[in-house]
Design brief:
Rossmann fold; 15 helices; globular; 7-stranded antiparallel beta sheet; 6-stranded mixed beta sheet; 2 domains; single chain; alpha+beta; 570 residues; 31% strand; Jelly Rolls
């Protein structure tokens, strides 16, 4: 334990209690720093837990917030506006998870650390904080992304002193965090290893690969061989390197060797655990990060206690240090931790910002309005129309594109279809689908669809995205016309030359297409590595490209009704 000291953070004087030692039930000590006002009195506490290093979070005291694509934007400074937390009358307690920072123990795998679920550690940490003389026994949690996921894991264990949580931008379905529609996404490596300017996890000797720890040498050799047989993986030298030398890339190695959903992802899936949560939960997420919007909505539907869902506006990423949403967070905690009846629970449970109209829609449920899923059919001359194509494939020849591997070209081929300009506002809120009849000449490819709102002056706003690895095309029993779901539990190679129907899930969105605007759908099997939208996302926010040359034919005729199915509000 370090010496308590006082620092001057502008208008706020802060007492700092550094290097606290927090005992876990198995004797491991976690490290924490606590910040509070200089008055000697107990306060409610807001706890932040991650493997990013507690000292990094103190940058919030000295660094002005940075927005993407600033090179100073560090995605790991996520524990909140430290001086603001103290000024609002809380103790801000920032802890290092097991196997990271100054904490003891081992961190193995994703949400399981050395055989101990991280929720168990969070329980012990929260109850220790509540018992300290500088805490009044009321605890909430704070922080986005990883910190947000930890809040759900903690609440699922039901620590008695945890009275409410405020979750922003968390990652819940861990498979969907790492494989969008079965297509590997590189961002988790940036968060783990500090690529692209992120600080990454605070390394210790106690961080290990779950696969290496739990698989036999024979099983591990087979997993590596299977991944090295994938043309997409073998065409990306960095992945080949990790598969051969996993020691410094243990988390990324585990992700690469688990391309299918299953026990490794489901063991501590926060969505599965959320049914145990009975305390109040406020969920917040901004549009443009489809997979996490989907996760927040799924979590909202799973929760049984008092709850709120707030879907904010584009752009997708908050600043770092994180300072947004604090007004809402303090209202939430004023009610649940301080007992102030500020009326927040009299307000609708769901709040949704609608792009285009820039209106806010409120309701008690998601979607916030009744929805009718209507089709927009792909038609000749790269158009989208409400009526299906009347001609057969002999007259309505397929569209298509050939994509060479990025090892031999810098060009990403894109085929696009667009509506006529809208005559009147058209509002859509909810989840959609793209039903595409595609023939390829290989046994696999990626299908990436991005939907845009284009203004008359040519400016474009990304509305939603959909991803599907062709070999993951199987649907499960939850699926319907406008709300498809894929189990991702096995890969079924495509028969080259066969026309297959692929159904892409279009992540939830809320947008009004204004008069004069057009809706554009773009289909590719790769995405541009330098991209205006991806520049607003975390480092390395692109997907593993197709490593083989592929010809795609998209049929959209009377026998093959390729279409978008979109959630029109009533």
């Amino acid at each position: 334990m370090g010496e308590t000291r006082t620092i001057d953070a502008g208008a706020t004087k802060i007492t700092v209690r550094p290097h606290l030692e927090v005992p876990m039930r198995d004797g491991v000590l976690l490290a924490a720093d606590a910040y509070h006002g200089i008055e000697d009195k107990p306060r409610p506490a807001l706890v932040a837990l991650s493997p990013y290093g507690k000292e990094l979070q103190a940058a919030a005291l000295t660094m002005p917030p940075q927005r993407r694509p600033s090179p100073l934007w560090d995605g790991c400074i996520e524990a909140g506006d430290l001086s603001r937390v103290v000024a609002e009358g809380y103790v801000h307690v920032i802890g290092d998870l097991r196997g990271s920072g100054a904490s003891g123990g081992e961190h193995i795998g994703n949400y399981n650390a050395g055989g101990v679920p991280l929720g168990h550690d969070a329980y012990d940490f929260i109850e220790w904080v509540a018992a300290q003389p500088w805490c009044d026994g009321n605890v909430g949690m704070i922080g986005i992304s990883y910190y947000g996921s930890m809040q759900v894991l903690a609440a699922a264990e039901r620590p008695p002193s945890l009275k409410a949580i405020f979750v922003s931008g968390g990652h819940f379905d861990f498979y969907e965090t790492t494989y969008h529609g079965g297509i590997m996404w590189f961002m988790p490596r940036a968060a783990r290893e500090g690529r692209g300017g992120d600080s990454g996890w605070a390394f210790t000797e106690g961080v290990k690969s779950r696969m290496i720890e739990t698989c036999t040498p024979e099983e591990l050799e087979q997993r590596v061989a299977e991944r090295l047989a994938d043309p997409d993986v073998v065409a990306w030298p960095n992945l080949v390197h990790v598969l051969h030398y996993p020691k410094q890339h243990e988390a990324w190695f585990d992700i690469i060797t688990n391309p299918l959903d299953g026990p490794w992802y489901e063991e501590r899936n926060p969505i599965n655990l959320a049914a145990n949560i009975d305390i109040p939960v406020h969920l917040q997420i901004d549009q443009g990060r489809g997979w996490t919007v989907d996760g927040h909505i799924e979590l909202f539907h799973t929760l049984k206690g008092p709850k709120k869902l707030d879907i904010g506006s584009y752009p997708p990423m908050q600043s770092r240090p994180w300072v947004e949403e604090h007004e809402k967070m303090f209202r939430w905690y004023e009610y649940w931790l301080k007992g102030v009846d500020n009326g927040i629970m009299d307000e609708p449970a769901v709040r949704t910002f609608v792009e285009g109209s820039r209106e806010v829609v409120t309701a008690q449920q998601w979607p916030p309005k009744p929805v009718e899923h209507r089709p927009l059919y792909l038609r000749p001359r790269r158009t989208l129309a409400p009526e299906p194509e009347p001609l057969g494939p002999e007259h309505a020849a397929p569209d298509g594109f050939y994509q060479a591997p990025l090892t031999v070209t810098d060009e990403v081929e894109v085929v696009r279809w667009s509506t006529a300009p809208f005559d009147e506002p058209v509002e859509m809120i909810g989840t959609g689908a793209a039903h595409l009849f595609v023939e390829i000449d290989q046994d696999d490819t990626n299908l990436i669809l991005r939907m845009w709102d284009e203004a008359p002056d040519g400016r474009r706003q990304l509305i939603t995205t959909g991803y599907l690895k062709a070999s993951h095309r199987e649907l499960d029993e939850r699926s319907n016309e406008g709300d498809p779901h894929h189990p991702h539990t096995r890969a079924v190679p495509v028969e080259p030359g066969r026309i297959e129907e692929y159904v892409l899930r279009l992540y939830p969105f809320a947008a009004t297409f204004l008069p004069g605007h057009t809706l554009i759908a773009e289909l590719s099997c790769n995405e541009p590595l330098a991209d205006a939208h991806n520049a607003l996302l975390p480092p390395d926010a692109f997907h593993l490209p197709v490593g083989r040359p592929v010809t795609h034919k998209i049929y959209r005729d009377a026998h093959h009704p390729s279409r978008l199915v979109l959630p029109h509000t009533a």
